Amino acid sequence: GxxxxxxxxxxxxxxxxxxxxxxxxxxxHVSLFWYQQALGQGPEFLTYFQNEAQLDKSGLPSDRFFAxxxxxxxxxxxxxxxxxxxxxxxxxASSPSGRAINRELFFGEGSRLTVL
Amino acid sequence: xxxxxxxxxxxxxEGRAANLPCNHSTISGNEYVYWYRQxxxxxPQYIIHGLKNNETNEMAxxxxxxxxxxxxxxxxxxxxxxxxxYYCIVRSGGGSNYKLTFGKGTLLTVNP
Lengths: 116, 112
Prior knowledge:
The structure holds 2 protein chains of 2 kinds. Chain A contains no helices and 11 strands. Chain A has strands at residues 5-7, 10-13, 19-24, 31-37, 44-50, 53-56, 65-68, 75-79, 88-95, 106-107, 111-115. In chain A, strands 2, 4, 5, 6, 9, 10 and 11 form a 7-stranded mixed sheet that branches. Chain A has a 4-stranded antiparallel sheet with strand order 1-3-8-7, with no helix packed on it. In chain A, a hairpin with a 2-residue loop joins strand 5 and strand 6 (53-56). By secondary structure, chain B is an all-beta fold. Chain B has strands at residues 9-13, 18-23, 31-38, 45-50, 55-56, 61-64, 70-75, 84-92, 106-111. In chain B, strand 6 (61-64) and strand 7 form a beta hairpin. Chains A and B meet through strand 4, strand 5 and strand 10 of A and strand 4 of B.
């Protein structure tokens, strides 16, 4: 498809398990973002990539969260030793421009993580 | 980035215009106003953005007051599919500012 694709759409994990969430951005898009959205809240910024470089990871809530984009296209968000407070929808967005100014972000449908 | 204030919820009748207000009284000269919406169980969708002039596209119109301290998003003929959370976001036009900072937005419910 032409849009941002995320998988899995739904993930249930037991507390303490590791999870990996995948994002396929729109082909050719330079910028890639991860956001976390808790129930009833707006999305919150986690991290930003320009091509393969992770330029900002200031929003990652702990060192259990790790993101990578090794070839500048597909990205993976990994959460180690999941906790209940990690339950949320994880949104990926991409943009064609490295500056991303005046350019819209294209969001995927998100991966809903539930930690039991 | 400047903080925005939006009503928590609004209702609109199908076929009527929906006018969604946003206050951004601390906006500075190089900050743009963006609107996104999020339909239930989907990711946010870009609607429109502007700096100081009014803007219109196929989805909506954006009216920014002359002092730029507030704006209104107008959906001219709301349909049931426009029911969503609408986010007003202010973002600097500076080259290093790439983030969108979402608030809680306005839940617009379009009623038949």
